[in-house]
Amino acid sequence: MHEYGPENITLLLKAWTKGDESAREKLIPLVYDKLRELARRSRRNSAMGETLRTTALVHEAYVRLVDIDEVGWNDRNHFFAVAAQLMRRILVDAARSLGALKRGGSARIVEDLDLDEVLNPDSERAAELVALDEALNSLERLDARRSKIVELRVFSGMSVEETADLLQVSPQTVMRDWKVAKAWLLREISMGA
């Protein structure tokens, strides 16, 4: 357990933004542990080798996060929202690089897609991950908050409560938007099938 709470993560992020390298050093174990927790939850339904894939995902996300130059981190919510986007990009890029669309069938996607289950980019179902990403991009243009809720829940494995906290809305709002977004995404994916 670390001595720093969520408010201290925000303070450390702001200090790091201002060039305080000691703040970065204190921040590393705090955010790395949280990223690892999020990645582990996002990979919980993966096949064998979960630990390696989780470690690779969190490491890649972390490396990309600390390499972002001149970001004015607003707070821990901003940091973890960016982390969710990066995890999404990493997973979708992995699925695309494996030629997922060639192996999957879009008709099967509509029948079996379960947004409550995180999709594995190196599985037979990687095409679903790519289709979801494309539909999520369309949803983002229509409703940014619902898109962000799906991104946080699916790609970072965040709970309803964590998502609500991060977006500063009620858990009921997250649940309502989650249900609407899932229905919209499934319809969008089925129309593209």
Walk me through the structure.
- It is built from 10 helices and no strands.
- It has 193 residues and is mainly alpha-helical.
- The protein has one domain.
- The termini are far apart.
- 36% of the residues are buried.
Which helices and strands, and how do they pair?
Layout: H1 6-17, H2 21-42, H3 50-67, H4 76-97, H5 100-103, H6 106-112, H7 126-142, H8 144-155, H9 160-167, H10 171-192
Helix pairs in contact: 1-2, 2-3, 3-4, 4-7, 4-8, 6-10, 7-8, 7-10, 8-10, 9-10
Q: What labels describe this entry?
A:
10 helices, 193 residues, 75% helix, mainly alpha, single chain, globular
What is this entry, summarized?
The chain is mostly helical.
Q: What structural class do the secondary elements suggest? A: mainly alpha
Q: How many helix segments?
A: 10
How do the SSEs run, as a string of H and E? HHHHHHHHHH
Beta content comes to: under 5%
**Unreliable residue stretches:** 45-52, 103-110
Tally the structural domains: 1
Distance between the termini: 47 Å
Overall pLDDT confidence: 76
Major sheet characteristics: none
Question: How many beta strands in the DSSP annotation?
Answer: 0
Share of helical residues: over 70%
User: What spatial form do the alpha-carbon principal axes imply?
Assistant: globular
Gyration radius (Cα, Å) is 17 Å
